[in-house]
Design brief:
Layout lengths: L1 H9 L3 H21 L9 H36 L11 H26 L1 H11 L14 H18 L3 H19 L6 H7 L6 H5 L19 H5 L22 H4 L2 H6 L18
Length: about 280
């Protein structure tokens, strides 16, 4: 059965993946209207249109770069290379370890690097400048950042040795978690706290979108929260009402709600926040 699932995902049509993405977006938009975490006073359609523009650029870049991922998956299959090919593993364990390695290198690691390399951080700023985090924020990435993430996903495929089917399962789950963890929904605290020991939950990730340090540099996880716990980058927020979204250096809504100014942010002067790990001249 598991092998059948992998085979299905190896040949999953782009149309089906698009349906999954759009259906997930619609599902969480519906949940947001029924059980919102915060009651934002904003034009939801205008806000969504801005974020969907950046989502579209991300999807286009991923589509153009799909051949790179396929190349490394085929290379590993032909040369029996990559970490997973060093051992004979049951198929269920191969899938789990494959997903974990892809998540570690293709998501957590590049996310951590973006927060710790100044010129890359300036691209990632766009994701953090959303003052009303909701499901549409999930794929709000500058095109430059989308390229970084694509390259690290390809690296993750090469290092892990994950099959193309497992890679497609991972990318489908990754899109789902981008929706889930950014959705403006109230989750039962006890369930959220149990689940966040292993996976990234809505409440776990919301702390990452608080507008000031140290929260901004915590809870980098994409699917698995264990990486933040292992590397000491997790933070706990007891009262979510204490959170304020956005970024303290970019709180002007005229700047962060305009496509042109947002695209130009990485090429402007660096603005160090209070407690910044970067100096102006670093």
């Amino acid at each position: 059965m598991l092998n059948d699932i992998i085979i299905y995902f190896e040949g999953i049509p782009s149309s089906i993946r698009s349906i999954i993405l759009i259906s997930g977006l619609a599902f969480f938009l519906l949940l947001e209207s029924g059980i919102p975490l915060f009651r934002f006073k904003y034009n939801k359609v205008k806000h969504a249109a801005l974020n969907i523009f950046f989502t579209s650029t991300t999807l286009i870049i991923n589509l153009l770069g799909a051949s790179l991922i396929l190349f490394f998956a085929n290379y590993n299959a032909q040369n029996n290379s990559g970490l997973l090919n060093l051992f004979e593993l049951p198929i269920w364990l191969n899938i789990i370890f494959g997903l974990m390695l892809l998540d570690l290198i293709g998501a957590w690691l590049i996310h951590w690097i973006e927060h710790n390399v100044k010129w890359m951080w300036k691209f990632h700023i766009i994701h953090h400048t959303d003052p009303e985090v909701d499901v549409t924020t999930g794929l709000r990435h500058h095109p430059g950042e989308s390229v970084f993430r694509l390259l690290f996903t390809a690296l993750a495929v090469f290092v892990s040795g994950a099959s193309f089917g497992v890679v497609m399962i991972y990318q489908t789950l990754s899109a789902f978690f981008a929706h889930l963890t950014h959705a403006n929904i109230k989750a039962p605290k006890i369930i959220d706290r149990i689940l966040d020991k292993v996976i990234v939950t809505p409440h776990f990730h919301k702390a990452h979108h608080h507008y000031t340090l140290p929260h901004t540099d915590k809870n980098y996880g994409n699917i698995f929260s264990i990486w933040d716990r292992i590397f000491g980058t997790s933070i706990k927020v007891d009262d979510l009402d204490d959170l304020k979204y956005g970024l303290d250096t970019h709180m002007n809504k005229k700047e962060t709600s305009n496509i042109k100014t947002m695209l130009l942010i990485p090429f402007g002067e660096y603005r160090p926040p209070v407690g910044s790990k970067f100096g102006k001249n670093d």
